[in-house]
Structures are given as C-alpha cells and as structure tokens.
Design goal:
The protein has helices spanning 19-30, 45-49, 52-69, 85-109, 163-166, 183-194, 213-225, 311-326, 369-374, 401-413, 418-423, 433-442; strands spanning 9-15, 35-39, 113-116, 119-123, 126-129, 134-142, 146-148, 160-161, 175-179, 198-203, 229-232, 236-240, 243-246, 251-253, 256-259, 263-265, 298-300, 339-341, 346-351, 359-364, 380-385, 391-398. It is α/β, with parallel strands linked by helices. Bound molecules: flavin-adenine dinucleotide. Flavin-adenine dinucleotide (FAD) binds next to helix 1, strand 2, helix 2, helix 3 and helix 8.
Length: 459
C-alpha cells in the first residue's frame, strides 16, 4: 500500500508503524516535514495488533465473565453464564482492525506517506524498500520494536505459543502452562484462569520479583484464588508430548504452553551494518537523550532502544524524535515512566519508592467507601516522599490502578508535595480518594483510617 506517490527523497523516513513510529510520523508531518512511514506488517504494530490492546480487550472480557459468575453475594445468580471463544476472538480482532484503520486515517489526514514493506538501510542517508524503491532521507527514525524471545528446548510451534498466538486463540485451552514471571506472564495467566482454563506458572525465582513484595503478595493470592498454580523457583527442563519436567522434580501437563520470558530488540534485516548506528551487548540501539544514534541523522525510539519496553514510553519518544528531527531542542527527559500490571487487582507504580531520605505512607482500600461498596478491598495506595514532603513515588494496588497512576505521574513531574495531593479535592466516591487519603496520612492527619495511635503533628 502506498497512500500517495512515493517520493525519491524525503525529510523524514520512519521505519515501523507501531505506536512509536506512527506517532513520530504524525508529529513530524504536523511540523511540516515530508514523511514516509514504512511498515512490513500492520499499522499500529505490536501494541494495537498483538500485545497491549488485544491483551486488555481479552482481560476485560474475562473479568466480566468471571465477575458475573461470582456475583452471588450481590444477589445476582448467574451460573448459567457461558463464554463463546469464537465471538470473543472476533471482538478482539475487530478492535485491532478498527484501531488499525484509525491509524491509517490519521496518517493520511496528516499527509504521511504510508508504504507497506520492509526497509533496509543502504547507507546513513539512503533506504531501500521491498519493492526496490530507494529513498534518500535527511533524517530517519528507527521504530522497529521487539520480538518475543524463545526458550531453549521449547521452540515455538503448535502447542508452544508466543504472546501473539496466545492472544489470538479462537478456542479455550483446558489447561495452560505459562513460562515466565513478568507482567506478560501474570496478565496471560489472569486472563485464561478467569475464563476457566487450568493455569500453571513456572517462575525461575518468583512472579513479579522486581516489584514490592507486599503488593505482589496480593496479586499472588488472587492468582491462587483463580486456581493458578505457581511453581516458584523452578526451571522447565524438557518437554515430551504435553508433559514438562521441572528442575524441582515435578512434572506438569497442559494443552498449551505460553513462553513469556521476555522481548528482544527487532533489528533483523535492517542493514544497520551499512550505517554508523551502534547497539549494546543485548542488541538494543544506543541513543543519547535526544534519541539520536551514533549516526547523527538517524534516531531510534521505543522497544528497540531498550527497557522499559512500554507503549507509552514509545509514544512519548515518538513526539520527541519528530521534534528533534525537525530541529527543535527537545529531549527525552521525563522523570517518570509509569508501569502497570493488569492483574487482579491491577498494580501500578510511578517514580521511586525507596532511597535515602525517602519515607512511605500507606492507605488500605479496606477503609475506602467505594472499595467496600464494590467488594474490592484488597489493595492499597502507598506514597513515597522526602522529609520536605516532595512526592517521589506512588504505588497502587487497586481496581483501576492503571487509571489512578496518571495523577501520580503528573504530581512527580511537577514536583508536587503530599500537601498538594492532600489538598486537591478528589471526587467522591472514587478509588482516587485513596491517593488523597494516603497523602493526608503522610502529613500526619489521616481521616478515614486509624493508624493505631494519634498520628503525626495533627495540626
Ligand atoms: C503481551 C504484551 C502486552 C503488552 N501490554 C502493554 C500494555 O498494556 N501497556 C504498555 O505500555 N505496553 C505493553 N506492552 C509493550 C508494548 O507492546 C510495546 O512496548 C510497544 O508495542 C512498543 O512499540 P514500538 O513502536 O517500539 O514497537 P512495535 O509496536 O513492536 O512496532 C514495531 C513495528 O515495526 C515494524 N518493523 C520492524 N522492522 C521493520 C522493517 N525493517 N521495515 C518495516 N517495518 C518494520 C514491525 O512490523 C512493527 O509493526 C505489551 C507487550 C506484550 C508482549
């Protein structure tokens, strides 16, 4: 697909139309640059077609299904509720399709030339496309993303799936083993367990090892309530038929295996050797804070430049890269990149929760009106702040934590204090009040929770 006539020279070429790439292209076109956006698969990349959006679409369906079937305590009898995996799959595909069309429309409307095919660097100022066309560019942005890593002895195949296949099933496996311990593993396990699949997780040390133990404990308890069996401290040794042998001596069986052991940068066939672009020991492209590579006319953004591999990081970098390519003095200098795990309950973190001179205060959801009303009381909001009260980090385990964390990110970016958060009127009755309550507690004037003794200075 070429949406207009393809120029032989362009101000900017963007390789990869994932969330990072298409945003770069649109922003650059808004600035008045001529832009060619090259994509070898689908507009919207992994996020829209195989990862963020499909997983959250399916997680939402599984949540509805699970909650309806477990609503006796609210007076709803619904044991007859069934799920039709083919319809669920159709909805998931339709959502991605709609968003892909939306990206196409936005690119066209902003004057971006979209080309379907692979791009290869021939030099630091020339690209070749699959159809043989060569394009001279003034600036290029590499936004080629990442790909799932394979695990030795568990090659992807009919019953060993990567995340793309796992999120594109039109049937429900009776049983599933997820190998991995990060957020993709936890989200995949949550999604299928809610739909009735018997799920095992194999975690080399433990699930979500890098996160706060107190928060992770809530998520692990919830996984166990869903029937997920966690084999912590276990390594999968071999697979024969549908049986996996573990380092612990256990043998587990399943219909399908999902390998979720990480992502690696995708630079295959890109021709980086024909440029001055360098990569680090893990293959991620090296950039400075203006997202410029060691080849000064080439920038890189998103998953291909490294952790954290998150869509909202790629999106922000897309805007910066376009502005830098245009000649503006922009830089990727955000203080926080929030991260969310769409577990049950959700967990979200922004900023730093530990360090010299940092104090934390926690407010439990068991004391929050909205949480009690909805029967969603497991979780908390924790605020980390300096002695002077400057907010440095917020951790939330709660229904809707993903939406709530945006306030925290803004607070940290703006250098807000716990007083600012406490004195800002938060609408009632909402989960967001837990952030205000935690800030009030941090100031020593908690209202809706008694911390065992009259707290703080109570002024
Ligand atoms: C299961 C799962 C769930 C996730 N959920 C979330 C979430 O909820 N929130 C979140 O923030 N992040 C999430 N992520 C991470 C998120 O998907 C990525 O961070 C994001 O997609 C990165 O965007 P990108 O633009 O860098 O790359 P991508 O979206 O991977 O896009 C890269 C594009 O480049 C194209 N391409 C590659 N090479 C070439 C070439 N030579 N020529 C032309 N085109 C090329 C590819 O086809 C692809 O379309 C999730 C990841 C996984 C695996």
């Amino acid at each position: 697909m070429v949406m207009g006539s393809l120029p032989e020279r362009t101000d900017l070429v963007v390789i990869g139309a994932g969330v990072g790439g298409y945003i770069t292209a649109i922003r650059a076109a808004q600035l008045g640059m001529s832009v060619v956006l090259v994509e070898k698969e689908k507009l919207g990349g992994h996020c829209l077609n195989y990862a963020c959006i499909p997983s959250k679409t399916l997680l939402n369906i599984s949540k509805m299904y699970y909650e309806i079937r477990n609503s006796d305590k609210f007076g709803i009898s619904s044991q007859q509720t069934t799920i039709d995996p083919k319809k669920m799959y159709q909805w998931r595909m339709d959502v991605s399709g709609k968003l892909e069309k939306g990206v196409e429309f936005l690119c066209k409307s902003n004057g971006v030339e979209v080309v379907k095919g692979s791009a290869v660097f021939i030099s630091g100022s020339k690209l070749q496309l699959t159809n043989g066309t060569e394009i001279d560019f003034s600036k290029a942005v590499i936004a080629t993303g990442s790909e799932p890593m394979e695990l030795d002895g568990f090659p992807f195949g009919a019953d060993v799936l990567d995340y793309k296949k796992a999120l594109s099933l039109d049937y429900l496996p009776k049983s599933m083993t997820v190998i991995g311990a990060g957020y993709v593993a936890v989200e995949t396990a949550t999604l299928f367990a809610r739909l009735g699949t018997q799920v095992n997780i194999i975690a080399r040390s433990d699930v979500l090892r890098v996160f706060d133990k107190e928060a992770v404990e809530i998520i692990k308890n919830s996984l166990q309530r869903l029937g997920v069996k966690i084999y912590a401290g276990a390594t999968p040794i071999s697979k024969q038929g549908n049986a996996i042998k573990l380092s612990t001596g256990d043998t587990i069986t399943q219909d399908v295996v999902v390998v979720a052991v990480g992502l690696r940068p995708y630079t295959t066939g890109l021709g980086l050797e024909n440029t001055k672009v360098t990569v680090n020991e893990k293959g991620f492209i090296n950039v400075d804070n203006t997202l410029t590579t060691s080849d000064t006319n080439i920038l890189a953004i998103g998953d291909v430049i490294g952790e954290p591999m998150l869509a909202h990081k790629a999106m922000r970098q897309g805007v910066i890269a376009a502005e830098v390519a245009y000649g503006m003095s922009s830089a990727f200098d955000n203080l926080v990149i929030p991260s969310i795990i769409f577990s049950d309950p959700e967990m979200a973190v922004a900023g730093t929760m530990q360090g010299a001179g940092i104090e934390t205060t926690k407010f439990p959801l068991s004391a929050l009106g909205r949480a009690i009303a909805m029967g969603k009381t497991s979780g908390f909001v924790k605020i980390a702040h300096t002695k002077e009260g400057v907010v440095k980090g917020v951790e939330i385990v709660s229904e809707d934590a993903g939406n709530m964390i945006a306030e925290a990110a803004l607070a940290i970016e703006m250098g807000a204090t716990i007083e600012d958060m406490a004195d800002t009127i938060h609408p009632h009755p909402t989960f967001s009040e837990a952030v205000q309550e935690a800030a009030e507690a941090a100031l020593g004037r908690p209202i809706h929770f008694f911390y065992g003794k009259p707290a703080g200075n109570q002024k």
